[in-house]
Amino acid sequence: MITRQENGQRTVYLMQNFHNTDYKAMGVIHPDQAFESVYDFRYIIEVTAAITAAAILIIFILVRQQTKPLSKLIENMRKVQDGRLDKLVKVEGTQEIRELSATYNDMLGELDNYIQKLMQVEKSKREAEIHSLQMQINPYYIYNTLASVKWLIWQGDKEKSVQVIDAFIQLLRNTISNKNEFITLKEEIENLKNYVLINQIRYGNQVNVDFYVTPDCEEQKVPKLILQPFVENAFFHAFPQGEKGTISIFVRQSDGLLRVEIEDNGIGMSSETLRDLLNKKNASREHFTGIGVNNVDDRMKLIYGENYGILAESQEGRGTKITVCFPLEK
């Protein structure tokens, strides 16, 4: 076989000797022309490309069907990060994905049950706490109140005696007898008014307390005994040595919150004294309960979350302002 390149074309010469003779047979082949007539290369390429594309599409569809349950599982996991524990996934797909989905659903159910139990435990703890606070009525306050009533009776001031006794009975009834953790703001304000009345009769009317409550706030629920510690502290620390002054309580709805501001025009305090007051745990003998200001802040965070609490502002000689915000009931 001899191959030559002539005029840009490849030519193949095939030669064969005849047996026992001197004759030879020669054939001439032009490969490019020969195979071009036999094979349509463009057609072959198009068919190959079409088959390859179809195969890739089929593989993609099969893989997509197999991984779709996994994608749904991942999507639901992202929703769980937002606290949505009710997003169970459908158990489907390959055996491995089915087992993974079933395990995920079981884990989500157990997590939801655990959170529900934890919330119930926290609720029970709060109920136990409020019950404990109700039982912490300061005995010295009771003794002193009863002594004041005795003194009024001895003085013959029956009208004031009856007022103190009625206010004291209402105060005890609403704090000890009422087992509810939450009461309406109207009831909490009524407790404050009874407390203020008792103190004014006992210590005089040097400290005046004004209430400014918008009507749309009265039926909103708040934790019991949540505002009283602030009024108590203002009553006994803002106006020393019998100084006259005013405590103003403003209640309104603002920015989707129930906003309570307790403000006095007393002596005020430095930032260090204010910090000590916020960290103080034991109330003085004059207080109705042993609830401190820091107890209120802890209760707010326990009930409503870390974003809630108290904001205290004070300047020496310019009074003190306490702000407490509650989420509105819908």
Spell out the blueprint of helices and strands.
Layout: E1 2-6, E2 9-17, E3 24-29, H1 31-38, H2 41-80, H3 95-134, H4 139-155, H5 158-177, E4 182-184, H6 185-203, E5 207-213, E6 221-223, H7 228-237, E7 245-254, E8 257-264, H8 271-279, H9 293-304, E9 310-315, E10 319-327
Parallel strand pairs: 5-7
Antiparallel strand pairs: 1-2, 2-3, 4-6, 7-8, 8-10, 9-10
Commentary on this structure:
By secondary structure, this protein is α+β, with helices and mostly antiparallel strands. The chain has 3 domains: 2-30, no CATH class; 42-118, no CATH class; 144-327, 2-Layer Sandwich (Heat Shock Protein 90). The chain contains 9 helices and 10 strands. The protein has helices at residues 31-38, 41-80, 95-134, 139-155, 158-177, 185-203, 228-237, 271-279, 293-304, and strands at residues 2-6, 9-17, 24-29, 182-184, 207-213, 221-223, 245-254, 257-264, 310-315, 319-327. The strands form 3 sheets. The chain has a 5-stranded mixed sheet. It has a 3-stranded antiparallel sheet with strand order 1-2-3. The protein is rod-shaped, with a radius of gyration of 44 Å. The N and C termini lie far apart (99 Å).
